[in-house]
Amino acid sequence: MNLQDFLIPPAESAKRSGPKDMIVMTSRIRLARNLKDSAFPGWAKKAERVKTMKAIVPAVESLPSMKGCFSESLDNLSSIDKQILVERHLISREHAAKGAGSGLVFNKSESVCFMINEEDHIRMQCLLPGLQLNEVWAQINKVDSRLETALDFAFRDDWGYLTACPTNLGTGIRVSAMLHLPGLVLGEQINQIIQSVNKLGLAVRGLYGEGTEALGNVFQVSNQMTLGEAEEGIVERLNKVLSQIIEHEENAREKLMEQKPSVLMNHIGRAYGTLSNSHIVSSKETMNLLSFMRLGIDLGLFPGISRTVVDELFLITQPAHLQTQFTKKLGADERDLRRADMLRERLKNVDRPLSQLPPDGDSEETA
Amino acid sequence: MNLQDFLIPPAESAKRSGPKDMIVMTSRIRLARNLKDSAFPGWAKKAERVKTMKAIVPAVESLPSMKGCFSESLDNLSSIDKQILVERHLISREHAAKGAGSGLVFNKSESVCFMINEEDHIRMQCLLPGLQLNEVWAQINKVDSRLETALDFAFRDDWGYLTACPTNLGTGIRVSAMLHLPGLVLGEQINQIIQSVNKLGLAVRGLYGEGTEALGNVFQVSNQMTLGEAEEGIVERLNKVLSQIIEHEENAREKLMEQKPSVLMNHIGRAYGTLSNSHIVSSKETMNLLSFMRLGIDLGLFPGISRTVVDELFLITQPAHLQTQFTKKLGADERDLRRADMLRERLKNVDRPLSQLPPDGDSEETA
């Protein structure tokens, strides 16, 4: 099965929408599960990993929600394919480094994905656009329950689900949301928000999870504790914090519009001007500039175009997605050239942003 | 007499052209002269400075080339007027700081200008667009000879013209040219060129002379020695060095076009994109970006517009020229806003640069 043919085309993927998706790009929950009486993947020899994988994959494939899924062992995927999966947030960077004895299975809509023999035997995630943690929880909970009828999970009544790393012990749950927070960054409030969120026992990370930078003003907020609290409680707590962050971001944008409109327009205008005229541009710079264009669209400064134009560019300008456009293998320098060509081409018919903010209330979704 | 009404409007000023003006923006010669038996301005008390000025000004005003000139004591000029004169290269920054007892006289075309009681009693300059040092020398030499029939200059047969600073002793001449060298800067050859030029006994300075930065890739090359060599010899020597620098700049541009077209187009495209979309922009950044747009015009990337558009912007975006557009006194922050407004407005009908360099030979003047 060809991975790239299976994946939703980026243009379609960018069109997916959900509640509050001006700020909340995606909602995600992943559960860590392990088979009873099998060594954790980091400890197991290859033969044992292959064995656990063979036990897990058919059970996953036969889940109703995985009908027609993509299922593959990692040694059958090229490094480009793996990198594409990382850029789609379907697998972790750590999983992409694995080979035989590790695998992945995900469904047609890319909403449910299993990593097999990453840190744990099973990492299952449900990912949906916008703020819909409850829906995400309902889906993944159902998937997990069904799978538990087919597989024998390592579980102790006193500790809960056993995991390779003690930080996941208990529920094995990580609830997270990917947030676009340019207002808080420009308003220089982001560090304060991160500190407050940390104090509530939640982690704030960059675009690709643990240890990564907050490129494009995108931050991932997630729970830290997995022990001693029911899943519903964790989801509920995250929901509360997220709605506060959303409010702060909305307020930050409004404050900027009122008090520093020129600073705001300056960032947005320059981002547009650079994206549509550069001939060499890195992936990092592109994300940071696209972030400001996305903000400009949110604020009604680009009446002609929709957010999906930018969201698609967010995806297709990343290294592996960019590479798929070319047969010849591109080096980093060449990618920076081709990325710039693509951006100029895509933005050539996009008019300059308005020179003034539209009157109050014209901006999407702010109410 | 109102200074601003007298000055050539920037749009007209930007239209002035001369040989090799793609690279040589202006050619200039200034002569330092002092009156016999009067203390140098730095030593003289105010009363004596006023006295020497009274002796000099009528003699200058009655020169045939100064017919209908602008003549004023510096204490009658506002600080904005003085700053405008600096931005036009009519007076030095040091002269702008002076008041009563110092003055200036310049002719209608702004080609001949006298600073009175700057560092010397008289600093006369002739300034013409493009590379025309011989013409500049012919004009200033004539002016000097005529003035010498009316005033008694401090002169010794063995030392030549006496000056306040020994570095000007002898001929009192400084021959200079303002060069636009983006090719050598982008090609990272500029430091090597500066070193070679220094070894030939010539100085390389920034846009506003001694101790100033090379904003907008503009460099001033001038002689250092004024003693022991006839004026014609100095002019000739500078001419030779300038034609070598011009050749190096032309070669650097050609080399960039051949070997690093994307680097070149990247700088030009981003400069255009930023200038036409920013909402806050400093004077320094503006000059640096206009420099790349000017290069883009030279290379034929902006078929619709002429170099005068950029040359006018070079002038009118500078702080004092910008201030003249507004009645209310602007702070630096407000200037950065108004400058950006002006640039967006001026460039709104300028199309994006071509995405490819035009075929060889299409660029102006390169042959």
Most extensive interface between two protein chains, with residue counts: A-B, 22 and 22 residues
What structural category do the secondary elements of chain A indicate?
alpha+beta
Report the end-to-end length of chain A measured between terminal Cα atoms.
Answer: 45 Å
**Mean pLDDT score of chain A, rounded?**
93
Estimate nothing, just give the exact number of structural domains of chain A.
2
CATH architecture label of the largest domain in chain A: 2-Layer Sandwich
Please give a handful of descriptors for the protein shown:
homodimer; 367 residues; alpha+beta; Creatine Kinase, Chain A, domain 2; 2 domains; two-stranded antiparallel ribbon; 14% strand; disordered C terminus
The gist of it:
The structure is a homodimer of 367-residue chains. With 367 residues, the first copy, chain A, is α+β, with helices and mostly antiparallel strands. Helices cover 44% and strands 14% of the residues of chain A.
Account of the 3D structure:
Two copies of one chain form a homodimer. Chain A has 367 residues and is of the alpha+beta class. Chain A has two domains: 3-253, Creatine Kinase, Chain A, domain 2 (2-Layer Sandwich); 260-347, no CATH class. Chain A is built from 14 helices and ten strands. Chain A has helices spanning 3-6, 10-15, 46-61, 79-87, 93-96, 133-150, 182-186, 190-199, 231-259, 261-275, 283-298, 307-316, 319-323, 332-347; strands spanning 24-33, 70-73, 103-106, 112-116, 122-129, 155-156, 160-161, 173-180, 202-205, 218-223. In chain A, the strands form two sheets. Chain A has an eight-stranded antiparallel sheet with strand order 2-3-4-5-1-8-10-9, covered by helices on one side. Chain A has a two-stranded antiparallel sheet with strand order 6-7. In chain A, strand 6 and strand 7 form a beta hairpin. In chain A, helix 9 (231-259) packs across helix 10 (261-275), helix 10 (261-275) packs across helix 11 and helix 11 packs antiparallel against helix 12. The longest helix of chain A is centred in the C-terminal third of the chain and has 29 residues, at 231-259. Mean pLDDT of chain A is 93; it is low at 362-367. At the A-B interface, helix 10 and helix 14 of A face helix 10 and helix 14 of B.
